[in-house]
């Protein structure tokens, strides 16, 4: 294993940021290569501890000569967001200087060539970080961006061009659901990882061996040793299933039995009133059309001070908010509907 340090210049004199990159060199140049990063939204830590639990497994495979393809690991991909605190509260989703989401605004290249990346030297620190992460990741056959939701099940976002070929990956990782998408107008890291292969020859695109996904490891509070170990085992199984690591003792993943839906089937359920949220459902619950999902207490103690929210269709509760205070118009949860949502959104679901 080799460790290097990437440095990102800050936006004022005397300020810079750095993060480590770990590389395992494969013995077979024809084998698939893999890139894993965690905490692009710097406060999302389930992926960080999963990578921490994975590293000894990779070191053991390396020591035993079982690493076929090159592996690049970035355990904490966002030192800028990691350093951001406002009145004692960590702020890792948006860059405070530009107000841009750290997982938006990645360049969507026409081909998988880092020479096409824009010059961000005169730009802002968050733009330089995004360019750096793309330089590290482009060219790998497998690209995993490890995130988490607020409270939720484990699920993947997968571009339609990679499904069902990626079903083995979903099964290996043991996730509960897969959300399929086909349009990225916001420049997510996942979009920037798959879009360069959309208009290139098939022998370059290699969709049969390509993996690009945003992994949502449950909720932001699910930072737990047992979960980290389980997630690391899932990542390891994926790398073995795709030939990056050799491990004949590990069986091939079975069929994926979780929920698979297009992104337009998701109802986000914006709150009709501001107030305190009383949930009737939790992630993993199956609900019928018309079932009460939550009650918002907007005028405590008053006879008409509660507003109920009901399911517009039958489906699965994928996520909900971890905080119980809400403003009008903010999303209460993700309901994975059996049918297309009447309020279907294209592109990303949230800011």
From TrEMBL:
It comes from Mesorhizobium sanjuanii. The keyword RNA-binding does not apply. Its cofactor is Zn(2+). The keyword tRNA-binding does not apply. This is Peptidase M14. Keywords: Hydrolase, Metal-binding, Zinc. Residues 31-193 form the Succinylglutamate desuccinylase/Aspartoacylase catalytic domain. One of its GO terms (molecular function) is metal ion binding.
């Amino acid at each position: 294993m080799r460790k290097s340090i990437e440095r990102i210049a800050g936006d004022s004199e005397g300020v810079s940021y750095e993060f480590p990159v770990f590389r395992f060199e494969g013995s077979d140049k024809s084998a698939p290569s893999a890139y894993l990063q965690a905490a692009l939204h710097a406060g999302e830590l389930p992926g960080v501890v999963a990578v921490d639990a994975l590293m000894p497994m990779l070191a053991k495979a390396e020591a035993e000569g079982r690493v076929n393809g090159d592996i690049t690991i970035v355990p904490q991909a966002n030192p800028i967001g990691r350093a951001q605190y406002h009145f004692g509260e960590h702020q890792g989703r948006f860059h405070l200087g530009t107000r841009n989401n750290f997982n938006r605004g990645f360049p969507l290249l026409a081909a998988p060539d880092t020479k096409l990346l824009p010059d961000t030297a005169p730009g802002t620190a968050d733009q330089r970080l995004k360019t750096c992460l793309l330089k590290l990741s482009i060219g790998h056959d497998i690209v995993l961006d490890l995130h988490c939701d607020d409270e939720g099940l484990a699920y993947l976002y997968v571009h339609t061009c990679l499904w069902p070929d990626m079903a083995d990956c979903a099964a290996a990782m043991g996730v509960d659901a897969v959300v399929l998408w086909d349009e990225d107008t916001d420049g997510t890291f996942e979009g920037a990882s798959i879009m360069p292969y959309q208009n290139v020859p098939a022998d370059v695109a290699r969709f049969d061996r390509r993996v690009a996904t945003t992994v949502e490891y449950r909720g932001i509070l699910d930072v737990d040793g047992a979960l980290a170990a389980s997630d690391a085992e899932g990542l390891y199984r994926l790398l073995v299933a795709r030939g990056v690591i050799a491990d004949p003792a590990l069986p091939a993943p079975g069929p994926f039995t979780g929920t698979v839906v297009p992104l337009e089937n998701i109802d986000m359920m914006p709150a009709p009133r501001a107030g305190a949220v009383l949930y009737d459902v939790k992630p993993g619950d199956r609900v019928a059309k018309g079932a009460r999902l939550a009650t918002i207490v907007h005028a405590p103690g008053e006879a008409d001070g509660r507003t109920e929210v009901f399911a517009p269709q039958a489906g699965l509760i994928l996520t909900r908010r971890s905080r119980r205070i809400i403003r009008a118009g903010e999303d209460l949860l993700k309901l994975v509907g059996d049918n297309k949502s009447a309020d279907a959104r294209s592109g990303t679901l949230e800011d």
